[in-house]
Amino acid sequence: MPLLRRHPDSPEAPVDAIDATVARRPDGGLDVRFTLSGDLSALAIPGPASPARRDELWRRTCFEVFLHAPAGRGYLEFNLAPSGAWAAYAFAGYRERAADPDIDTPAIAVERQDGALVLDARLDTPADLPVDQPWRASLTAVIETADGRLSYWAVAHPPGRPDFHHADGFVVDLPPPTPEAA
Questions:
Q1: pLDDT beyond 70 at 22
Q2: Of 7, 117, 162, 167, which residue has the fewest beta carbons closer than 10 angstroms?
Q3: Residue 180 falls within a domain, yes or no?
Q4: 63-105 pLDDT, tens per residue?
Q5: DSSP single-letter state for residue 106
Q6: Residue (of 32, 26, 149) closest to 80 by Cα position
Q7: Is the pLDDT score of 181 beyond 60?
Q8: Farthest-apart Cα atoms in the chain, separation
Q9: 61 in a domain, yes or no?
Q10: What is the dihedral of CA 177, 156, 169, 149, to 10 degrees?
Q11: Measured at the alpha carbon of residue 118, what is the angle toward residues 116 and 121, in degrees to the nearest 5?
C-alpha cells in the first residue's frame, strides 16, 4: 500500500497518514482506495452531494489518480472528492490538455471510521487505453484544513514546487490485469 507524503513546502496538516491502493480490473478499469488518518475535525472535508462531474476539485480536499501508458506521451487525471464529485481529464503531453475522456460516472463510496476517512472509487478508463500493457500511476491528494490552508501529498514529489503532472511522480507500477477465470 503506497504511502503519500506531504510536499516539503506544504504547511503542516493534522494528518497522520494517507495510504492508497490501486488495482487494475480485467475490464480495463481501476479500483482505488485512499485512507486518510488524522484529526478529521481539523480538516475541511466536503459533505455528501450528488455524484457530478465538477472542475477545480483540487482547490479543496480531494484525492487524485494520474495514469500513464508508457507507449505514449499522454496521461489521464482523475479527481475524486469526498462529496462524490469527480473529474477526469486527458493530456496529450505535460499539461497539454486534450479532449476530456468519455467515461461513466465513477462509483465513489466514502466512510468515516475512527479517526480515518476512507474513499473507495471504481473508475472506468477510456477504451483507447491499452489494457494489455503496463501502466504507471501517480497517487496524490490535496488536503484542506478547517482554516483554509492546503497541503499537497503524493507517493513521490519531483524537485521544486508541488507538481502532480510531472513525470517523476508516476512511480506506481500497474501491470496488466490477470484475466478472470472462465
A1: yes
A2: 167
A3: no
A4: 999 999 877 789 999 999 999 999 999 999 999 999 999 999 9
A5: P
A6: 32
A7: no
A8: 53
A9: yes
A10: 120
A11: 170
Residue in 150, 152, 148, 149 with CA at minimum distance from that of residue 160: 152
Is there a contact between 36 and 141 (Cβ–Cβ < 8 Å)?
Answer: yes
Residue 182 maps to a domain: no
* Residue 151 CB coordination number (10 Å): 21
Q: Answer whether 27's CB lies under 8 Å from 181's CB.
A: no
In a domain, 22, yes or no: yes
Cα 26 from chain centre:
20
Residue 10 DSSP label: S
Q: CA 47 → CA 44, 84, 151, distances in Å?
A: 9, 9, 19
Average pLDDT, the chain: 94
Domain hosting 97: range is: 3-174
Mapped onto helix, strand or coil, the DSSP state of residue 168 is helix
Quick one: 63 exposed, middle or buried, by C-beta within 10 A (0-12, 13-18, 19+)?
A: buried
Query: Which CATH number belongs to the domain containing residue 104 in this structure?
Result: 2.60.40.1190
How many Cβ atoms from other residues are within 10 Å of residue 13's Cβ? Answer: 21
Q: What is the pLDDT of residues 23-49, one digit of tens each?
A: 999 989 999 999 999 999 999 999 998
